[in-house]
Design a protein that fits this description.
The protein is α/β, with parallel strands linked by helices. The protein has a single domain (8-176), classed as 3-Layer(aba) Sandwich (Rossmann fold), CATH 3.40.50. 39% of the residues lie in helices and 15% in strands. It has helices at residues 19-32, 42-51, 56-62, 93-100, 107-117, 133-144, 163-176, and strands at 8-13, 35-40, 65-67, 85-91, 121-126, 148-149. Strands 3-2-1-4-5-6 form a six-stranded parallel β-sheet, sandwiched between helices. Helix 1 links the parallel strand 1 and strand 2. Helix 4 (93-100) packs across helix 6 (133-144). It is globular, with a radius of gyration of 16 Å. The chain starts with 7 loop residues before the first strand and ends in a 19-residue tail after the last helix.
């Protein structure tokens, strides 16, 4: 497989609650054979410690390529580096605000800006509630630039039996937006029959 035909996806993990979404994305991408390029913010490292038992090394080893948040010269900071786009899971409101206002203060927000300017897919699994008008305006700004706001809203029609199942479904749906076929994703009207 040439570098041109290789499927690559950038995964960003921010400090918003829901660190597990990023981990699950890396696990699924590995199963699908998609090369993952990971960038994790400093607040995300703190959230990892609060929310999971995963070591930093465990999470980094799930990705094919890791970057330092300060490495502005990384491959993913250039539009000439071909990717399918970028998933930020979870996405903090701070990160949303930087992307909405074209602020590239870290590699994560620079990579997101590159994805938008190259007209590739940017999916933000935004984790915040309730929302005020400023949040909504920033979500609209990102949407108008071509990004997709996809809060990880749980579904119940597949009768999830665990939190892990709910996380898996949300992440699989987000990866669907990149035209990745997650085979065991329960689909309404296919594996789940309407009433």
């Amino acid at each position: 497989m040439t570098a041109q035909s290789k499927k690559r996806l950038i995964v960003g993990i921010t400090g918003a609650t829901g660190f597990m979404y990023g981990v699950e994305a890396l696990r699924i991408l590995k199963k699908l054979g998609v090369e993952s390029h990971l960038v994790v913010t400093k607040p995300a490292e703190i959230t990892r410690e609060y929310e999971t038992d995963f070591s930093r090394e465990y999470v980094r080893n799930l990705a094919d390529v890791n970057y330092s948040i300060t490495d502005i010269g990384a491959a993913i900071a250039s539009g000439s580096f071909k990717t399918m786009g970028m998933l930020i899971a979870p996405c903090s409101v701070r990160t949303l605000g930087e992307i909405a206002n074209c602020i590239s203060s870290t590699l994560l927000t620079r990579a997101a800006d590159v994805v938008l300017k190259e007209r590739r897919k940017l999916v933000l699994m935004l984790r915040e509630t309730p929302l005020h008008a400023g949040h909504l305006k920033q979500m609209l700004a990102v949407t108008e630039m071509g990004g997709i706001i996809m809060p990880p809203v749980p579904v119940f029609y597949d009768k999830p039996k665990s939190l892990q199942q709910m996380v898996y479904h949300s992440v699989a749906r987000a990866l669907d937006l990149f035209d990745l076929d997650v085979v065991d994703l329960p689909r309404w009207g296919e594996t789940i029959k309407p009433c």
